Amino acid sequence: MSYPVSDLLTGKAAPFRGAETSAIAKTPASGPVRITRLGLDGDEQADRKHHGGPDMAVHLYPRDHYAAWRDHLGHHALLDAPGAFGENLSASGLVETHAQIGDRFRLGSALLEISQPRKPCWKIEHRFGRKGMVAQIVQTARCGIYFRVLEDGIAQAGDVLELVEQGHDGWNLERVFMALFGANHTARPADLREIMVLERLSPELRQRAAKTLG
C-alpha cells in the first residue's frame, strides 16, 4: 500500500493563548526536508511535555476527515488548506481504521513507524475557535497518527508513504484509541492486557493501559 503525501508541514512556536505558545500552525515546506528521530527539520513543539519526542516525532492527520469536519462545523477557513490540525504530513487514504500500530513506511529515504494515535488536545478547539471538537474526536476516533523515525532521511511533497512492513495485526489506531480514550467506552480487560504488551506502541500508552486495568 502507498499513500502520496501532498505536503510536508512545519511550524514555529508563537503566541497562542495568553502566555501560552504553540506551534500548531504549520505551513507547507518548500523543497526537500530532513526527517530525524525528533521530527522534521524546522518544526518546533512549544510544549515538549505533551508533544514531540521520539514517539511523537511526525504527525499525520488524514485529509479524508476534512469533509466530515466541514459537515460538523460548517465552513471554516482553516479547512481550505493542509495543516488545519497541526499535522506534519498531509495525505489521504491512511486512516485510523487501516493504520496499525507498528506499521512501517518508507517516505523518501526516511523510515517511519506508527507509534500511537494522537490524544485529543484543547488547542484544536482554540485554534478553530469552536467548542466540542475534542468531544467529537473522542466519539469518532478521527484522531490522527503519530510516527517515530527509525531511519533518518529526506523527503519532499509528492513523495509516497510506502508500506514496507506490517505491525501488530488487529490493532489499528481506532481500536487502540477507543480502548484508551473513547467516549462511553469501557475497554475489556483482555484488550488492555494485550495493549500493555504491544511492543511497537509508545511506552506512555502501554503504561496508560496498565493504569486503566488497575
TrEMBL record:
Domain MOSC: 27-164
Name of the protein: MOSC domain-containing protein
Molecular function terms, GO-annotated: catalytic activity; molybdenum ion binding; pyridoxal phosphate binding
PANTHER family the record matches: PROTEIN YIIM (PTHR30212)
Pfam short name (any one): MOSC
